[in-house]
Amino acid sequence: MKIAALFPGYGSQFVGMGKGLYDESRLVQEHFEQAANCLDINFVKMCFASSDVELARMINAYTSLFLVSSSIFDLLQSEGIEVDAVAGYDVGQYAALHASGSLSLPDGLYMLNKFVGLYREILDTTEVAFSRIIGVTSEQLEKLCMKRSTKKQLVTISHYVSEKEHIIAGNAPVVEKVNKDVVDLEGTTESIGPEFGLHSILMASVAGSMKMYLEKVDFKDASVPLLCGADAHQIRTGKDLQACAVSMITKPVRWSSIVDALKGYDLIMEVGPGTTLHGMIKNRYPDKKVISINTRADIEKLKTMLDLQAQPVEK
């Protein structure tokens, strides 16, 4: 049975995520302790006892999602569950890099902390806007973005979620023009926050700074391939994984390509908070085995699906 593990991105976070597994697992507790030491953030309080508003702040959401998703995956591995490929939606790719065996937990936390600081500088100095677009095709939206972009004002598709769901991002005036064009085509638009990411050439300075920073990070060759890029090709070498981490800053998230690449997998599991990716995959592949892993009950259900012998709860 071929198994793929997917890791959710921003928007999947919620107060209380991972608490049941934290309460019962020393491995998860150690991950939280290590994360607190790395960033001087009380992740127990942040994940289990903060507010939705506080947790939604970029630095808190990114690092907490990475921590919870990575902790759950490492717990799965400790209980004998192996996968054949990993992929992450947007910022979830950091957890996928960890799950591949290439990126350590501390390095992932430091990378996200560095990235958020650099990204905030762009947001503080550039008027940008973000919209979720539903009801027009990728080709239609690409043409609209090209039509409205100028040498000084840029709007692009930042996320290819599905054939008729996208996120656009860029300079606010031209984003607004594309929004109006979409309505004229009987599509719908929804203004969203910058936490979903620009993913365009507007992030070139961030990519340059992150590239220099990542040269100091030890990207190991992966034990599990990661699906990366517009064609969701499998990569394993530390050099390729590092390049992928840099490229995702300025290139769009082509999630629809990842979903296409999952056709050959028998079981697909979403590892981390929420069930957003589960719904996307089940909608595309209604006959496939799909499961979200958030709780001990989810892990036991997964073991049943894999016909693994139940193991005692870790103390």
Characterization of the model:
The structure is a single chain. The chain is of the alpha/beta class. It has two domains: 3-121 and 203-306, Malonyl-Coenzyme A Acyl Carrier Protein, domain 2 (3-Layer(aba) Sandwich); 123-201, Malonyl-CoA ACP transacylase, ACP-binding (Alpha-Beta Plaits, 2-Layer Sandwich), CATH 3.30.70. The protein has helices at residues 19-24, 26-39, 43-49, 52-56, 58-78, 92-99, 105-125, 138-148, 172-184, 204-214, 238-250, 255-261, 276-284, 296-306, and strands at residues 3-7, 85-88, 128-134, 155-162, 165-171, 188-191, 226-228, 233-235, 267-271, 289-293. A hairpin with a 2-residue loop joins β4 (155-162) and β5 (165-171). It is globular and about 55 Å long. The two termini are 30 Å apart.
Which helices and strands, and how do they pair?
Blueprint: E1 3-7, H1 19-24, H2 26-39, H3 43-49, H4 52-56, H5 58-78, E2 85-88, H6 92-99, H7 105-125, E3 128-134, H8 138-148, E4 155-162, E5 165-171, H9 172-184, E6 188-191, H10 204-214, E7 226-228, E8 233-235, H11 238-250, H12 255-261, E9 267-271, H13 276-284, E10 289-293, H14 296-306
Parallel strand pairs: 1-2, 1-9, 9-10
Antiparallel strand pairs: 3-5, 3-6, 4-5, 7-8
Helix pairs in contact: 2-5, 2-7, 5-6, 5-7, 7-10, 8-9, 10-11
